[in-house]
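User: Quick sanity check before I run a bigger batch. Here is a single chain. Can you write out its predicted 3D structure?
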Amino acid sequence: MNPNAEHHSVAIVGGGQAGLSLSYYLQQRGIDHIVLEKRSPLHAWRTQRWDSFCLVTPNWQCKLPGWEYAGSDPHGFMKKDEIIEYLDGFVKHVAAPVRSGLTVQRAAPRAGGGFEIATSQGHYSADQLVVASGGYHQPIIPRLAERLPRDLLQIHSEQYRNAQALPPGKVLVVGNGQSGAQIAEDLHLAGRQVVMATGDAPRCARFYRGKDVVDWLADMGYYDMPVHEHPLREGVRDNTNHYVTGRDGGRDIDLRKFANEGMELYGLLNGLEGDTLHFNPDLRANLDHADRIYNGINAAIDKHIEKAGLDVPPPSVYRPVWEPAAERTRLSLRESGIGAVIWCIGFSPDFSWLDAPVFNGRGQPGHVRGVTALPGLYFIGLPWLHTWGSGRFSGVARDALYLAEQIEARAPVAGTPAARELAEPWLS
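Assistant: Done. Predicted structure follows.
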């Protein structure tokens, strides 16, 4: 224990939308707290999005606490500069007690309760600790990348800005999740020749039977479903996001359509021999899987419409507009003219700074709605922490309110023996 540590009732690690949302509710309750942020509040939104980035969920789902979307286009999709403007307003609205530019190097429970926190700018202590740093910390780039030619530009999706910033030649996009599919579309629309290595990412329709699919799913209660009621239970946290876009007012992303227009599609990238990439022969299966999910979501909407007796446009089923003539499993980088590779296979969490017995064998924290088995330790802002919206603008307020209530229930009342016992080590 460091006797010079600055003490607070609650320490929040991370100044993104989750940490600031919790700060909003703690301020309402008059609970002393500090937000420790490595860079600046909501830094990732300013630096880790490409130029044409826009929301894939409609604006009405932007429901940060006390700061819901109030613009003129609730069913539109904010572009990058509009998102930043919205978030800048939220930062000012919350006015959280943030300490920016410091890195939390280690946090651990201390004997007798509370937590010790070592940072790059001194020591802190807290009665309760909230991890609000999210789950997207380390860009995933496979070891295979180390063996690619040194003159071949390689970047992660978080580094991509626009097609013009890439060198001449074809662009290999590895991964067809939400980022991969949208980046591939951005390149394709810019006239770049794209080669895509696909995986088993699902897709969904943008609009169906007269309404945005998100609106239908909201009507069906999907976004209120807690993780313990989902058919996959906690396994849903490992799911890849459905690919779709809000670009130009919103539309489907159909890789088959792109293939008809010249995009080269392959199966899962699985190896490298010399300068030749190897792919699994599963392109057809990957495309069929995505379409099966697409049609399955629409079929669920059909049942909802029928049960409610709604008068809306008739149902439809997606039919493939392109089929691979054969599975291609090899591609020479030099012969094909690939000049850049964009790795779009996600991020991995890094909670190595947190020395607490709450993690499973995969490095994931165990919790129930963000509350861990270690008294006073919480998580917020993780995908499917409680519902689909937990890691998004739409659901983080609900999680933040719940945790604020849990924190308030554990906070000792000033002047009581419990409060004096917790404060004693810092009183001198």
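Residues 413-428 have pLDDT under 50 and may be disordered.

User: Great, the batch can go ahead then.
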